[in-house]
Amino acid sequence: LLKDRIAQTKTTLLAHNQAHLLAFINTLTETEITALLDQIEGFNFTLIDNLIAQYIKSDVTFEMPSAIDPAPAFPLDPDSQYQGQYDAATRVGEQMIRKNQVAAFTVAGGAGTRLNYPGPKGNVPATPIQEKTLFQLFAEGIDAVQQQYQCTIVWYIMTSESNHDETIASFEKENYFGLKKENVICFPQGMMPCFAADGKILLDQKGVVSVSPDGHGGSLRALYTSGAVQDMKARGIEVLSYFQIDNPIVMPIDPRFIGLHANAKAGMSSKAVIKVDPLEKVGNFTVVDDKITVIEYSDLPDEVAKEKDKDGNYQFMLGSIAIHLINRTFIEEINKGQFSLPWHKAIKSVPFIDSTGKRVTPEHPNAVKLESFVFDALPMSDTSIILSIDRNEEFAPIKNATGVDSRESSKQLQINRAAKWLTACGVTVATKENGDADCIIEIAPHFAHNLATLKSKTLKFTNIAAGESVYLG
Question: Mind spelling out the 3-state secondary structure of 275-292?
Fold first, then answer.
């Protein structure tokens, strides 16, 4: 049987110019051969051939649409007209939450490599005092919503091939951070081969193909193929609240956003921040052919990014921060056909096995990785809405080891938000000249997961002095 599998796989690989993947098969054990064949048989070589022709053997460049317009958005600061609409939407969102129709969805396939942390990024310590991990923080936030609305929030987590088992082990070790095990569902995302510049698939080991995650856009297929969507349907879940693992102050479940999305009968919607400047390195919300479309900062020409309207204001100032609502039926519909999101090409340094069997660690980028982005699904939705939010309330990313978007910068943003909330509750908080809080504050989601819940608490202090540490948990 093994000989037959090898022969069949050789035939397939020869037809697709990838026969080198079996070059070292005579040096492998039977177990290693079986694993290699399993991996190769999981690839769609027709798709791979098309990707090689389109993205690797040709110089792919982004084709700017002939016409783009600024995307409309619900405003951050509503006037009386919008306030009524917001209040009504919040009631709708709260009703859906109470009916268990909303679930959380975290894309958590990354590792903490860039943060000098070994293991899943969700295990990175993130908070200023207790050093709670990202997984714990989100679990507490989800449970806080469950307690407030007396509901069940199922939490779907997309892992990667490399961190799936370790992620599950982390949750088991911590007893799922107080959540019910059956309501935390992990599944791995899809993987794509890594390619050399000539389109040949790279070997990571003599019996292992080099692969990388297929991007957060792969979540829309993984949700379907993993059975997560079928699980949602069985539980009566209608909407997924999508967020990525690296944002510790995200609102896992936002009633206002959910209600606005539901009232608009949208398939997929997004939150946006106002960019700090026209060239900020975030995706840009635009309208192309009457559809909400995100154009990456690297693809939007500077002169377009700096365009102003008749009042002298920059037009394209809505930035994407990877917070979305996605309907279950939308995911079902796009998976019924052979949908494909655009692929994005990245040139990276990837170790590989050369033709002599030696493992090479290149000093310079040598390989092509292909990934898809979830926001590219927005134009596939008949209707989408965008809600403008205050970045200081909902966006404190942890992406880098130091500097901007690091654990250090994120902790300061967390402290500043906590200080702002406490100030609104009548507490005097010491501040520095630059406006940052001159103390260390951490508010656990179980204590208060938003300003409204904090205002309902009785605080036993009225002042936080410079240098003081305060944990509310």
Answer: CCCCCCCCEEEEEECCEE
